[in-house]
Design a protein that fits this description.
Blueprint: H1 11-21, H2 26-50, H3 61-86, H4 107-118
Helix pairs in contact: 2-3
Length: 141
């Protein structure tokens, strides 16, 4: 958008700074890379009419190298952050106290367990899961 106002002094420098800052955002990297590829293709299509050679090979890293590198680095950092968040991290005991596992069972769970295991009546259940317990995980593991 700032290229429309190139006649204003200093706008090229501001555009250069903003384009480097916006490389932190993956949609900008992808969009500006596609715009550069499209611009290169349009210049290649206009070569026969202007008798100039402005075409740059799109497979060379000179055209979209900084955008490709930024997308690669940000994607790798996001992968590492996601992996770290999915780890089972246990903090040292000085930060929290480990409570003993709760052995009390709810009344409805006991009734259902008794109905499944010890009842002689005919069960019309489609699915039976015997000796099933549930364990709740804390945020810290």
């Amino acid at each position: 958008m700032l290229t429309l106002y190139l006649w204003v002094s200093g706008i090229v420098r501001i555009q250069s700074i903003l384009s480097r800052i916006f490389l932190l955002f993956l949609p900008y990297c992808l969009g500006s890379g596609l715009v550069h590829l499209m611009h290169n293709e349009l210049m290649a299509d206009s070569d026969p009419t202007m008798n100039t050679n402005l075409y740059v090979n799109p497979f060379s890293m000179t055209l979209i190298d900084d955008r490709f590198l930024a997308m690669l680095l940000i994607g790798f950092i996001a992968l590492i952050i996601t992996y770290i968040l999915n780890l089972d991290i246990r903090l040292p005991n000085c930060f929290y106290k480990i409570s003993p596992p709760e052995t009390s069972i709810d009344r409805d769970v006991m009734e259902e367990r008794h109905r499944i295991l010890y009842s002689n009546e005919i069960n019309h259940d489609i699915l039976e899961a015997k000796n099933l317990t549930k364990c709740f995980r804390r945020v810290t593991g």
